[in-house]
Amino acid sequence: MSASETPAAPTTASRGKIIMMAIIAGAVITNLYCVQPILPLIASSLGVDQTTVDLVAGAALLGFAFGLALLLPLGDRFDRRKLVLGQIAVAFIFGIAAAAAPSIWTLIAAAFGLGVVSCVPQQLVPFAAVMSQPNERGRNVGTVVSGIMVGILLGRTISGVVGDTYGWRAVFGVEAAFMIPVFIAAATLLPKGVPSTQLSYGRLLASLWPLMRDNRPIRESMIVQALLWACFNAFWVNLAALLADGPMHLGSAWAGGFGIIGAAGALAASLGGRASDTLGARKVIGASIAIVTLSFLLLAGAESSLIFLVIGVIVLDIGVQAGLVSNQTRAFAVDPKAQGRINSLYMTATFFGGAVGTIISGWLMARLGWQGIVAFGILLGLIAMAIHWVGSARLPQKQVSPGA
Question: What is the pTM of this model?
Answer without folding.
Answer: 0.70
